[in-house]
Design goal:
The complex is a heterodimer of chains A (about 230) and B (about 160). Chain A has about 230 residues and is an alpha/beta fold. Chain A folds into two domains: about 130 residues, 2-Layer Sandwich (Nucleotidyltransferase, domain 5), CATH 3.30.420; about 80 residues, 2-Layer Sandwich (Nucleotidyltransferase, domain 5), CATH 3.30.420. Helices cover about 35% and strands about 30% of the residues of chain A. Chain A has eight helices and ten strands. In chain A, the strands form two sheets. Chain A has a five-stranded mixed sheet with strand order 3-2-1-4-5, with helices on both faces. In chain A, strands 8-7-6-9-10 form a five-stranded mixed sheet. In chain A, β2 and β3 form a beta hairpin. The longest helix of chain A has 18 residues. Chain A is globular, with a radius of gyration of 17 Å. Chain A starts with a strand and ends with a helix. The relative contact order of chain A is 0.20. By secondary structure, chain B is α/β, with parallel strands linked by helices. Chain B has one domain: Rossmann fold (3-Layer(aba) Sandwich). Chain B contains five helices and seven strands, in the order βαβαββααβββα. Chain B starts with a strand and ends with a helix. Classes of the chains: A alpha/beta (about 230), B alpha/beta (about 160). At the A-B interface, α2 of A face α3 and α4 of B.
Chain lengths: ~230, ~160
């Protein structure tokens, strides 16, 4: 099964093609948020260089969010229209899960953290089991302070990755009771190859959806929900 | 701080001072009645900022984008009904970008504004051309603008 994975939730515009669990190719740009101009040509180029006809693609993997509002909408528009025209399914990959899949550990949980500005973040808690990424706590919107409490309650050494782990490193270092491991910078960028890996897992577990069903997950409370709080 | 503006020439001076102190990521909020001069001030700022295009009020478009030293996002949020509306325009992507945001009628979205920002409230003065600018805010850009406006004021 050939998967086209599309990542546009952050500054990185990235696409990859995989065949089952083998990555055939990946193009990534982490330059400016110009996904509307860059992403489609990047996909075209990738397919051309791999000599793959778009009609050979069996599944679209998309970074479902959270992340940049505009970025997610561009990715969703591309994923939905491609999946619709090819009459294939979409694997909506939780963005924080894809981020966690950049890092491998046999014994430690991975907490992927994406900066949402003004000390707000998105996070998710994952671990590896038998070569698969397992969700320990589904991705959620939070603040740095709340996440620190959650990690402290885990009471075990963890690995932190994502741009949020970099930006708030000092706060984590000062407030986490058990010293965490900070993933090196290169593991903090979202990668469509990690996304393709999870999309393949989701396909084997039948967790795909139709193009018309898919919507981006902004993970933001609506105003009505916020007012209740 | 409050400064009194007597004519367009004064507005231009203020626009220049603001423009020279804008840093990547600055949020500048402009409030005041219709016709107070929010867009006029924006035009002077943009001009000094190296934007050749003529700046018009974005009341209809809500957000307009220009390219100067940094990108300039000129917003008029008068027609915004709720924070959700603003969010649906990709507001976060603009406000936390490397560009400059100038937001007219910012009071409408005051709960969504970042802590570090510059607020200018424009009031009409006694005669037709007089305006009173009240400058408040927080952060390094605000401090520098106030300092330079004070210097300018003492020169008068």
């Amino acid at each position: 099964m050939k998967i086209l994975a599309i990542e546009s939730s952050s500054i990185t515009a990235s696409c990859a093609v995989s065949e089952n669990d083998v990555i055939l190719g990946e193009y990534s740009l982490s330059h400016k948020k110009t996904h509307s101009e860059k992403l489609m040509p990047l996909i075209e180029k990738l397919l051309e260089d791999l000599q793959i006809n778009i009609e050979e693609i069996n599944l679209i993997g998309i970074s479902e969010g959270p992340g940049s509002y505009t970025g997610l909408r561009i990715g969703a528009a591309i994923a939905k229209s491609l999946a619709y025209s090819l009459n294939i399914k979409i694997a909506a990959v939780p963005t924080m899960m894809s981020l966690a899949a950049n890092v491998y550990s046999e014994d430690k949980k991975i907490i992927s953290i994406m900066d949402a500005k003004a000390k707000r973040i998105y996070a998710g808690i994952y671990k590896w089991e038998n070569g698969k990424v397992i969700t320990f706590k589904e991705q959620f919107p939070s603040t740095v302070d709340d996440l620190i409490n959650i990690i402290n309650e885990l009471n075990e050494p963890v690995i932190l990755n994502g741009d949020g782990s970099e930006i708030y490193k000092n706060i984590f270092e000062e407030n986490l009771k058990i010293k965490p491991i900070f993933a090196p910078k290169q593991f903090n960028l979202l990668k469509s190859s990690s996304l393709a890996f999870i999309a393949n897992e989701m396909a084997t577990e039948n967790k795909t959806e139709s193009s018309s069903n898919f919507t981006p997950k902004y993970l933001r409370l609506s105003q009505a929900e916020r007012n209740v709080k | 701080m409050k400064i009194t503006i007597n004519n367009l020439q004064d507005t231009k001076k203020v626009g220049k001072i603001i423009s020279e102190n804008l840093l990547s990521g600055t949020v500048l909020c402009l409030d005041g009645d219709l016709g107070a001069g929010k867009t006029t001030l924006t035009q002077f700022i943009a001009n000094e900022f190296g934007i050749k295009e003529y700046i018009t009020s974005p009341t209809f478009n809500i957000i307009k984008e220009y390219q100067g030293k940094f990108p300039l996002y000129h917003m008029d949020v008068y027609r915004i009904e709720s924070e959700d509306d603003m969010y649906d325009l990709g507001y976060d992507d603009y406000i936390y970008s490397d560009g400059i945001c100038i937001i007219e009628w910012s009071d409408k979205i005051k709960n969504m504004l970042p802590e570090e920002r510059v607020n200018i409230y424009i009031q009409r003065g006694e005669d037709e051309n007089t305006r009173i600018f009240s400058v408040t805010g927080k952060g390094i850009v605000f401090e520098k603008i106030v300092e330079e406006l004070k210097n300018e004021n003492t020169c008068n």
